[in-house]
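Revision sheet: structure tokens.
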Amino acid sequence: MKEFQSANHFSRFRRSQNDLKAPLQPVPGSFWRWLKKDGWAYGGLLLMLGCAIWYFGFGTKHFDLSQIEVAPLQFIDQQQIINSVQEFESSKFLGFIKRDTFWTMKTISLQAFLKNYLSHTIAFEEVNVKKIFPNIISITIKERIPSVTWITAKAEEKVYTVDRDGVVTQSLNNKNEANTAFPVIIDKNRDKFEIGWQIISPKYLEYLLQIQKEFSGATSLKIDHFIFPLVGCSERQYVAEKIFEKAASETNSEEYKAKQREIQEKFQNGLITIDESLEALDNLKKEEFQNSQNKNNANVNTNENTNIDTNAKQTEYDRTEWAKVYVPIECNFVKVAHEIHLQVVEENGGFEVYLDTLQDLSLQLQNLKTILAEKISDPKSIDYIDVRIPDRAYFK
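Predicted:
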């Protein structure tokens, strides 16, 4: 039996024995130790941060984009732009996040929205959107400035405005809505346009505006309106059917006509190309030509009394060529148009003047002035004067 020096020693011994008999307690893990020590503090900070974000983002009006600034515009209604921005702000991102705060507004999305809205009513060059902290949104629109009233007259009359680049800027209900200071041009080729289309070249418009500026001073005549005259465009095409028709008409031999039909059938069935068919027709024609020459030579040798002019003999055959036709196509007026007509006011005679934008304007106006002074006594008796050819003028 163990002896103890004192009662205190015995008491400590008994406690140690009881600890050995007691069940083992689980040792807390690192996560729980961190949570007990620092986790609640970090959690509290995150909660406070979330509340701050909600407050500054949604709970206060301080960051609402309440001020919409639109740079001065000449042809676009500023209030319409403001209304469009407000419409976009009232829409929601992801179905529940409003776009009317500094933090939730995406300028690139608003920019695309405005471009789409404007494209249906008027042409423009660019739209810029930026946010100014804390509650301002700034809109700048670079407008296309119209310079000409363009009227389509091929079918139903439609009225548009066009800028100096030849781009349609706006569609009008009627010509009474057009700016009276703009020159008017009547298009005899087309019946309608869309906003944003380029319908003519910038050089053509520049020449038209130059005429508008110089015509009256150079001729003492007043312009009533301009005319975009009819322009015909065609394209040269090569027609395989005409090639075979021509080849068949050049031979009287049924044998060779049958061979030609075989070549044509191969081409139509896609077994040979048009170039291969041309080569085959040439070889066939060459064969027929040589056989014909051989027969003529044989006739000369067997009949010495035959009088033949050998110099008149055909020594070569005609090669098969492409059959060319010209087919009407849709014109690219921006590239091909260069003629411009104008009609003077009725009090000056009401006749038309034909001009060419590829020729010097001063020379054409001088020729017009000369022919009016020297050749035409009564301007009302003529239909037109053509001064498109340098140093010449025609009238009817």
